[in-house]
Amino acid sequence: MGRCRWRVEGIWGQTMLSVGGLLRPGLLQLSVRGLCSSVIHRKLPAPALTCPALESAAVFVQRSPVRTLSGGPGAPVDSGWYSSLADSAPVHLCEHFLVSAQQLSGLPWWLSIAITTLSVRTFITLPLAAYQLVIISKVEALQVEISELAKRLRYEVSVQAGWTERERRFQYQKNLRRLIAQLYIRENCHPFKASLLVWIQLPLWVSMSLALRNLSLDQSAMHGDLAAGGTLWFPDLTCPDSSWILPLCVGLTNLVIVEVFSLQRLNPTNFQKLVLYLIRGFSVLMVPITATVPSSMALYWFTSSLVGLSHNLLLRSAVVHKILQLRSHRSETPYRDLLSAFLSKYCK
């Protein structure tokens, strides 16, 4: 028995000696203490988190009403630009905005989405649309002056001696661009400012859409509320609209917006006609796309298009034109003219 005990102690000593050569003494002592402590107090539950930073992060994740894209254990891991875009800061900001608006108002989700969309379009995009209208009006008012400058410049270039036709054309285009730029600076109406609405409205639309998509996923804390937050034929906002009513409403509203815009162009160019056909095709394509997304996104798209159409009609009002002090000539009966143009184009 003594010989066996001696052999076991010898083996144990060699093992500890080899392990001690690989580990530092302090770390080995800490491991042994931890092992002894777990043996002595093995009936006590070990703490799940010992780092204060990890504890704070865990509390934030548990309290946060908005789902992170990483999800929980077993959640699918997405990759690619779409996942990066859906996990971006603007999208998460829109998520918190939608959740906060619904919690503060206490309204059902379908009504909260509609009212939030109306508020965002009214207080953000409507002023930008009015500003765009002012810039376009100034640019249109300058066309007469630009035409006169072009005629005078063409005459001055034509009487220059010793210039070839190519040099005359180059000098004419160069000086005309300079004069037009000076007019834009004088009136503070560079055409690029008219595109400010697109640069803000499009990212906002994408961010709000992806925010609703994130909230409608199974890993979201709001999934249950959205599933019971619908109404009428779409009671579940996390599922697509199987009746196709919302997708058809989205497509028809977008087509009406396109046609109202096309009636403004009396003599469109070939390029404008091509762009118009492309937008019409995209409006039709939105119908099957809308049928595959959650009803919350479809409701947002329909409400946004409906509000955009109403804003478009509102900005045609003669009262609004007087308030904005538009320089270009506008009709005093815009809605009657729009109706007559629509009837003459489609009801011949």
Q: Describe it for me?
A:
This is Membrane insertase YidC/Oxa/ALB C-terminal domain-containing protein. It is a multi-pass membrane protein. 71% of the residues lie in helices and 0% in strands. It contains 15 helices and no strands. 18% of the residues are buried. The N terminus is likely disordered.
Topology overview:
Elements: H1 2-22, H2 25-40, H3 52-63, H4 81-86, H5 89-105, H6 109-141, H7 143-158, H8 165-187, H9 196-215, H10 223-227, H11 245-262, H12 270-290, H13 295-314, H14 318-324, H15 334-346
Question: How would you summarize what this structure contains?
Answer:
The protein is mostly helical and 348 residues long.
Features:
15 helices; disordered N terminus; transmembrane helix; Membrane insertase YidC/Oxa/ALB C-terminal domain-containing protein; mainly alpha; transmembrane; 348 residues
Helix content bin: over 70%
Q: Regions with pLDDT < 50 over 5+ consecutive residues?
A: 1-78
Query: What's the helix-strand series?
Result: HHHHHHHHHHHHHHH
Query: Beta-strand percentage?
Result: under 5%
Structural class: mainly alpha
The overall strand count is 0
What overall geometry do the principal axes of the alpha carbons give?
elongated
Radius of gyration: 34 Å
Distance between the termini: 114 Å
Average pLDDT figure: 77
Number of helices: 15
Transmembrane segments: 194-212, 244-262, 274-293, 299-320
Protein name: Membrane insertase YidC/Oxa/ALB C-terminal domain-containing protein
Family: Belongs to the OXA1/ALB3/YidC family.
Keywords: Membrane, Transmembrane, Transmembrane helix
